[in-house]
Write a structure and sequence with these properties.
single chain; alpha+beta; 3-stranded mixed sheet; globular
Length: 118
């Protein structure tokens, strides 16, 4: 799975509870084409024309509004687009990938940003 949930355990009296605190959304999952499709288009995944920015915006907005989404999955092993997965909203949504700040609509939804140039 391309996204994961960070589970934090808290001790409450004698009870242990698990709380879903954050969801990570990998923006590679929003590639327009799989590896074969990019061979045909002649564009790489670095090109913004190869991204589904409208869908990315819709998903980030829906999650922020407390709605679940069916997020696509880009399979890095074989370069295909796999069956989408259900992502449930959490208090913290982390978006990571090549182009998180390109789309102004997504930038406007971000409460806090951190850019790592690594």
């Amino acid at each position: 799975r391309s996204s994961w949930r960070w589970i934090r355990q808290r001790r409450m009296g004698d009870q242990h509870t698990c709380v879903d605190m954050a969801t990570v959304i990998c923006l590679d999952d929003y590639h327009l084409n799989d590896r074969e499709g990019r061979k045909v288009s002649g564009l790489t995944a670095l090109n913004t024309a190869e991204q589904k920015f409208d869908l990315m915006y819709e998903h980030v907005k829906a999650l922020k509004d407390g709605q679940s989404v069916m997020k696509p999955i880009y399979n890095h092993v074989n370069g295909t687009l796999d069956t989408p997965e259900t992502i449930e909203p959490t208090p913290v949504i982390i978006i990571e990938g090549l182009h998180p700040f390109v789309d102004e609509r997504v930038r406007d939804l971000i409460d806090f940003s951190l850019y790592l140039d690594i």
